[in-house]
Structure formats: structure tokens, C-alpha cells
Write a structure and sequence with these properties.
Elements: E1 8-11, E2 16-19, E3 22-23, E4 26-27, E5 32-35, E6 40-43, E7 46-47, E8 50-51, E9 56-59, E10 64-67, E11 70-71, E12 74-75, E13 80-83, E14 88-91, E15 94-95, E16 98-99
Antiparallel strand pairs: 1-2, 3-4, 5-6, 7-8, 9-10, 11-12, 13-14, 15-16
Length: about 110
């Protein structure tokens, strides 16, 4: 018999008690999955059921997958930002961490303002 816990249910095919993720008695959406080792529901980023690539990460506070800029797996410096519409990391001009005025522009080839 299954223990009377919300996190377990009987798998009909295998006749084995397995862990499932629930939120107030309702199955959780695809942004959560069950961590096999800890038996705790954790958040993950998915897109239509598939794990997302490295350009997305889970925002811990909002529990929403957000886009971030990376370069070869490492977070990029402040001269790049994520273009919200195109979801692509683009270069921007900054001076000591502040956006530069309109008299500068970014040279596309050299990546220098």
C-alpha cells in the first residue's frame, strides 16, 4: 500500500508507489519536476516539455525562466545585454558601467565604442 502522503501515488502500470509533484493537491506544471534523490519538487526550465538551452535560467524569486547572456557558457560582461524582442545578446556601449551618450556607437566588427 502507498503511504498516505500527497507526494506518493500508485503507478498503475508498474503497481509501484512513485513520487509525484503536487501543489495544493493539483499536479504541477512543466516548470517543476521531482528530484529523484531528495524526493522534493524542484523548479526547472523547460520549453514545450524539452529542457531549454543555456540562454535561459530560472529566476529564483519569480520562478520564471528568464533569458540571460552567456559567452561559451560564462556570463558576459556589462558590454552585452539581452535584446528583449530578438532574445539575442547584443553589444551596447557603456562608460564605467553607465550607458554612453548619443555621440558614441558600437563598431560591429571591433566590438568597441
Amino acid at each position: 500500500m502507498c503511504q498516505m502522503l500527497l507526494k506518493t501515488h500508485l503507478d498503475v502500470l508498474s503497481k509501484v508507489c512513485v513520487w509525484s509533484c503536487e501543489n495544493r493537491g493539483q499536479p504541477v506544471n512543466q516548470t517543476q519536476h521531482l528530484d529523484v534523490l531528495s524526493k522534493v519538487c524542484v523548479w526547472s526550465c523547460e520549453n514545450r516539455g524539452q529542457p531549454v538551452n543555456q540562454t535561459q535560467h530560472l529566476d529564483v524569486l519569480s520562478k520564471v525562466c528568464v533569458w540571460s547572456c552567456e559567452n561559451r557558457g560564462q556570463p558576459v560582461n556589462q558590454t552585452q545585454h539581452l535584446d528583449v524582442l530578438s532574445k539575442v545578446c547584443v553589444w551596447s556601449c557603456e562608460n564605467r558601467g553607465q550607458p554612453v551618450n548619443q555621440t558614441q556607437h558600437l563598431d560591429v566588427l571591433s566590438k568597441v565604442c
